[in-house]
Write a structure and sequence with these properties.
heterodimer, A: 265 residues, alpha/beta, B: 268 residues, 79% helix
Chain lengths: 265, 268
C-alpha cells in the first residue's frame, strides 16, 4: 500500500501585478508549477525527486506537507487527504525545508527543537532524551546550547533535519538536505536516511545530486517543467546511469559530461 | 487535543517569547523607561489643566491613566497577532509552523495569549506606577473590572485575528492596526470624554468596542460603579464579543486556506 499518493495533481501560481504596474513593470500571468502529476510511494521506500530548478520538486513536497493545496487532483498521506484532513496529514509528516530562515534566531538549537517538538505533540517527558539523541545524530551536540543566529548554513541544514525527525514521523520530506553540507557530513546524513525505512518511515527527497540519489534512493522520479518526465527503480544504478536517465528524460544538454570528455582529450 | 497537550504548547510558546524578550535586554529597558516618561507627562499635563476639569466626574489624571493604559493594552494586544504572523513570515517560520500538528488557529491563539500575558504585566506596571508614584485615587468594583477586562480581551483577540487574517490575505494587516492606533484613538475617549465630540462622530464612537471598554473600565475602577450602572457597557461588550470572535475565526480560516491555495503563505 502506498503511504503517499499524488493523483493527477496540478498546481498553478498566479501573479497579480501591483497597482500602477507601469511604474515597476511587474510580470503578470501564471506559472504552472505542476501539471497532472501522478505518483505513489510505498511504505518504507525512498523516492528521490530530480529535476532542474523550477521543475516542481519543492512544490511537490509542499503539497504533501499541506503547506500548499492543489488546484486539481488530490494528495493522500497515509490515506488522509491534504485538503479535507490536513490536521491528520500533519501528524504523519516531518519536513526538512531548504531555507535557513525557519528557526527562532534568539533561541538555542535545543530550545528550538523543544519548541517545535511541543507543537508536534512529542510528550514532555521524552523530549530531552529525544532532542539529545537527535542533536547527536546530526552532529550538533556541541552546539546544542548556542543561539541559532550564530549558526553556519550547514548547521542550519542539520538542525532542519533534526527538527523534521524529532517527532518520529512516518513520512519524511527532505528538500535538498545536503546542499550546504561538507562531503563527510553529507555521507553521514545519507547513512541516517538509509536507516529511516527500517523504522517504518517513507521518504521523499528532492535533490540535484546524482550521487545522493544513487546513495539513498529506491526509486527516482524526474520532474521537468511541472510534468513527470521519468520514473524508474534505482536498485544498483550507478551515478552515470542515473545521469544519463535524467538528461534523456529532461531532454537537456549534459554540458558537464561534454566538458569532462573535452578535458580528457 | 488533550488539555495537557494544550498546556504544554502554551508553556512552550510563553517560554519562547520570554526567552526572546529577555535576550533583547536593551529593548526591554527602553520600553519601561518610555512608559515612565509617559506617566510623568500625563501627570504634569493634568496638573497644568487644573483640578476644575473632571471628565465623567473623575480627576483628569486617573481618567488619562486608565484611558491610555487600557487603550494601549488593547491595541498592543491586537497588534500582537499581526506581529506574530508578520514576524513568522519574515523569519521564515510561518510555513513550517503551519505543518506542525497544532492547528493554525490554535497556534495563533496561543501565541496571542503569550503576548497578552506580557502586555498585562505592562498594564499592571503602568497602572501601579500611576497609583503609587502619582497618587491617583482608586474606588474599584474589582469584579466589575474583571468582567470588563475579560470581555475587552475577547474583543481584542477577535480584532487581532482579523488583523492576522488581513496580513495573510493582503500582507498589510498593519492597515487595520494603523486605523485603530491613529484613526480611532481620539474617538474612543482615551484622552478626553466622547461627549466632547460632535454628534456624528459621537455616534460612530459608540460603534467602536474600545469606547465601551474604556468607559466601563473607568466606571468600574475609578467610581466603583454598581452592576446596574455597568450593565449597558457590559451588554455592548458581550454583544461585540459574541459576534466578532466567531466571525474573525471564520475569516482567518478562509484566508489561511486561500494563502495555501495561492502559495502566498510566506509572502510579506
Amino acid at each position: 500500500m502506498d503511504s503517499i499518493v499524488l493523483e493527477s495533481v496540478s498546481k498553478v501560481f498566479r501573479h497579480r501585478p501591483a497597482l500602477f504596474n507601469w511604474m515597476g513593470r511587474e510580470r503578470g500571468g501564471e506559472t504552472r508549477a505542476l501539471e497532472n502529476v501522478s505518483l505513489g510511494v510505498a511504505r518504507g521506500q525512498i523516492l528521490v525527486l530530480l529535476g532542474p530548478n523550477g521543475s516542481g520538486k519543492t512544490t511537490t513536497l509542499k503539497l504533501v506537507s499541506t503547506m500548499l493545496l492543489p488546484d486539481a487532483g488530490r494528495v493522500l498521506v497515509q490515506d488522509a487527504d491534504t485538503q479535507s484532513a490536513p490536521n491528520e496529514v500533519r501528524k504523519h509528516v516531518g519536513f526538512a525545508v531548504a531555507t535557513e530562515r525557519s528557526f527562532f534566531p534568539r533561541l538555542s538549537a535545543r530550545e528550538n527543537l523543544d519548541f517545535f517538538a511541543a507543537l508536534d505533540d512529542v510528550p514532555r517527558r521524552s523530549r530531552p532524551a529525544r532532542i539529545g539523541a537527535m542533536l547527536d545524530r546530526t552532529g550538533l551536540l556541541d552546539a546544542a546550547d548556542t543561539l541559532v543566529m550564530k549558526f553556519s548554513s550547514g548547521m542550519y541544514q542539520r538542525l532542519g533535519i533534526a527538527r523534521a525527525l524529532i517527532k518520529e514521523p512516518s513520512v519524511i520530506l527532505l528538500d535538498e538536505p545536503t546542499r550546504s553540507l561538507d562531503p563527510a557530513s553529507a555521507a553521514h546524513f545519507w547513512n541516517l536516511v538509509r536507516e529511516l525505512p527500517a523504522q517504518g518511515a517513507t521518504v521523499i527527497l528532492a535533490t540535484h545530486s546524482f550521487h545522493e540519489a544513487a546513495a539513498v534512493g529506491d526509486f527516482v522520479a524526474v520532474l521537468h517543467q511541472g510534468r513527470l518526465a521519468g520514473y524508474r527503480k534505482i536498485a544498483d544504478s550507478g551515478v552515470e546511469e542515473l545521469r544519463s536517465f535524467y538528461f534523456h528524460a529532461t531532454g537537456e544538454l549534459d554540458e558537464a559530461a561534454h566538458l569532462a570528455s573535452r578535458s580528457w582529450r | 487535543m488533550k488539555i495537557t497537550q494544550l498546556l504544554d504548547k502554551t508553556a512552550a510558546i510563553i517560554r519562547r517569547d520570554l526567552l526572546t524578550a529577555i535576550r533583547y535586554r536593551t529593548g526591554f529597558l527602553i520600553t519601561a523607561a518610555g512608559a515612565a516618561a509617559e506617566l510623568a507627562a500625563f501627570y504634569y499635563l493634568s496638573r497644568a489643566i487644573g483640578s476644575g476639569f473632571r471628565p465623567d466626574g473623575v480627576d483628569y489624571f486617573p481618567f488619562l491613566l486608565v484611558g491610555t493604559g487600557f487603550y494601549t493594552f488593547l491595541v498592543m494586544g491586537i497588534n500582537a497577532f499581526l506581529v506574530i504572523v508578520q514576524g513568522a513570515q519574515q523569519t521564515g517560520t510561518l510555513e513550517i509552523l503551519m505543518t506542525t500538528s497544532t492547528p493554525a488557529p490554535v497556534l495563533v491563539f496561543l501565541s496571542a495569549i503569550s503576548a497578552f500575558a506580557g502586555n498585562t504585566v505592562q498594564l499592571l506596571f503602568y497602572l501601579g506606577a500611576g497609583l503609587l508614584l502619582f497618587g491617583a485615587p482608586l474606588h474599584a468594583n474589582l469584579l466589575g473590572c474583571v468582567v470588563i477586562f475579560a470581555l475587552s480581551l475577547t474583543i481584542a483577540v477577535a480584532i487581532g485575528i482579523l488583523a492576522a487574517a488581513l496580513q495573510l490575505a493582503i500582507q498589510k494587516g498593519s492597515a487595520l492596526v494603523w486605523l485603530l492606533g491613529s484613526g480611532a484613538w481620539f474617538m474612543t475617549g482615551t484622552l478626553f470624554p466622547v461627549a466632547t465630540l460632535p454628534g456624528p462622530l459621537r455616534a460612530i464612537a459608540q460603534l467602536i468596542p474600545i469606547t465601551h471598554s474604556l468607559d466601563g473600565m473607568r466606571m468600574a475602577l475609578l467610581q466603583a460603579a454598581s452592576w446596574g450602572a455597568l450593565a449597558g457597557e457590559i451588554g455592548f461588550l458581550a454583544l461585540f464579543s459574541l459576534t466578532l470572535l466567531p466571525f474573525s475565526l471564520v475569516v482567518f480560516s478562509y484566508t489561511l486556506r486561500r494563502a495555501r491555495l495561492q502559495g502566498t503563505l510566506s509572502f510579506y
